[in-house]
From TrEMBL:
Protein name as annotated: Molybdenum cofactor biosynthesis protein B
Keywords: Molybdenum cofactor biosynthesis
Nucleotide-binding in keyword set: no
Family in the record: Belongs to the MoaB/Mog family.
Originating species: Cellvibrio fibrivorans
SUPFAM superfamilies: Molybdenum cofactor biosynthesis proteins (SSF53218)
Domain MoaB/Mog: residue ranges: 13-157
Entries under Pfam families matching the protein: MoCF_biosynth
């Protein structure tokens, strides 16, 4: 009997926050969808809302209470522009904050965009055992976050630790 753990596909939701994009022009949301599927996970749901605290919370709250939704990837609204409100919408819903995510994201982004990385308010946390990542709206930033941080932390085989054991357990459909 092997002690090697098997890969556990997760149900992941993707939310794009944008005042200018729609599902046809949403390159960042599409990139996240492509990356999660390529890694062996399942797209549970995908949505796009304008940068409005209450619209973000409405979609997110439905996923937080959804017994099948385990992870949410949010792209957009994490900067300092006037309407950027993803962090304000999501942070109050966290039961626990993954403080190291934003710090590590800015560190790995520094190699790509230099000091402009300080303008990212990328964050992550848990709500009702749903892991939520808030990422910048650029496709490059989403790719960096997935490839350099998120992908390994959502892989049940990654050692010494990963987030899979902290997530909701999927129930039978």
């Amino acid at each position: 009997m092997s002690s090697q753990k098997e890969f556990e596909p997760l149900n992941i939701c993707v939310l794009t926050v944008s005042d200018t994009r729609n599902l046809d022009t949403d390159t960042s949301g599409q990139k996240l969808q492509d990356l999660l599927i390529a890694a062996g996970h399942k797209l549970h749901d995908r949505n796009l809302v304008i940068d409005d605290i209450y619209q973000i919370r409405a979609v997110l709250s439905n996923w937080i209470i959804d017994a099948q939704a385990q992870v949410v990837l949010i792209t957009g609204g994490t900067g300092f522009a006037g309407r950027d409100s993803t962090v304000e919408a999501v942070s109050p819903l966290f039961d626990k904050t993954v403080v190291g995510f934003g710090e590590l994201f800015r560190q790995v982004s520094y190699d790509e965009i230099g000091t402009s990385t300080i303008q990212s308010r990328a964050t992550a946390g848990f709500s009702n055992r749903t892991l939520i990542f808030c990422l910048p709206g650029s496709t490059g930033a989403c790719t960096t976050a997935w490839e350099k941080i998120i992908k390994e932390q959502l892989d049940s085989r990654h050692r010494p630790c990963n987030f899979v054991g902290q997530l909701k357990i999927k129930t039978a459909p």
